[in-house]
Amino acid sequence: MILLTLEPIVWTPAHLVGIEAIDDDHRKLVLLFNELLAACSAGAGNRIIEKALDATVALTREHFAREEHLLETAGYPRLAAHRQEHRVLLKQLLSFGGQLTGGAPMNIDPNVVGFLREWAVRHIFGHDGDYIAFLRRPDAGA
Ligand SMILES: [Fe+2]
Ligand SMILES: [Fe+2]
Asked: Which domains does the chain have, with CATH numbers?
């Protein structure tokens, strides 16, 4: 059995975007990802991992749609690239789900779990940072 020792993702106020709905989503996504990582680390059955993954995918879809709508309304100039990044990330997340649907209990590959962790960190703490400066610019009128 593979023992995983992945640290949970830590949320801090430094990651606040300043928009309640987005910050709520990011906080919840961190919680869901940590549950998913914990389920993988604990060697939980596929069903439990799948359930955690389903919840993560559902919120991710909702969140991406919400964020894209907001950025569209705000006239964010790099929306197309951000949207593309969302697509790629979602595809990767779904492909992880595809690996769980084989039926037999899955040997969780530590690289896959590490990838999931990176995925969340990359989205929430990484590329979303791109639009914060734009939304907070002095003439944004917010
Ligand atoms: Fe986001
Ligand atoms: Fe985003």
From this structure: 19-140 (1.20.120.50)
